[in-house]
């Protein structure tokens, strides 16, 4: 089997892979949480699960990236993709947040009940901090995904060379 030549992959395709993986993982986790609650009466109150899902999607994106290009991406390009994915992630989560509170507002609770004007800077600071955390976590996840693929490739190459010697 001859190795395929490396193909450069666009930023749009990488971000699309990330988005598809993120949404799939979010749906899977939601189904698992609901199933555990219904069938085993196990309640999940783990706020870190959102970061785990983001990390898994970033790692899968890094693995896909290496599998297509067959070489380590440049560091600057990984930072760019991590930034784009982080912006998309934050936008998606803000959309979910807005949708949730909009549904509550339809029931007469107000759009953001209990949120005072003096709370807006605090909310913005928390959002900024979480955005930085998501960005750095995604960069790490993409790098780990690429490294995992590199190691897998090295293991396959060693096995192939051993099989060729035998």
From TrEMBL:
Coiled-coil residue spans: none
Transmembrane annotation, as ranges: 12-36, 48-66, 78-101, 121-142
Keywords, comma-separated and alphabetical: Membrane, Transmembrane, Transmembrane helix
InterPro entries: ABZJ_00895-like
Domain of life (superkingdom): Bacteria
NCBIfam families: ABZJ_00895_fam
Name of the protein in its database record: ABZJ_00895 family protein
Organism from which the protein derives: Ectorhizobium quercum
Lineage: Bacteria, Pseudomonadati, Pseudomonadota, Alphaproteobacteria, Hyphomicrobiales
């Amino acid at each position: 089997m001859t190795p395929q030549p490396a193909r450069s992959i666009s930023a749009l395709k990488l971000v699309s892979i990330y988005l598809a993986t993120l949404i799939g993982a979010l749906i899977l986790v939601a189904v698992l949480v609901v199933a555990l609650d219904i069938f085993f009466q196990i309640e999940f109150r783990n706020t870190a699960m959102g970061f785990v899902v983001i990390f898994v999607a970033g790692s899968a994106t890094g693995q896909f990236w290496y599998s297509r290009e067959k070489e380590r991406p440049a560091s600057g390009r990984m930072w760019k993709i991590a930034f784009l994915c982080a912006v998309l992630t934050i936008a998606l989560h803000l959309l979910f947040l807005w949708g949730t509170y909009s549904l509550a507002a339809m029931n007469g609770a107000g759009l953001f009940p209990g949120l005072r004007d003096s709370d807006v800077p605090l909310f913005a600071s928390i959002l900024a901090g979480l955005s930085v955390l998501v960005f750095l976590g995604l960069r790490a996840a993409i790098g780990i995904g690429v490294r995992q693929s590199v190691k897998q490739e090295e293991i396959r190459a060693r096995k192939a060379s051993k099989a060729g010697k035998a």
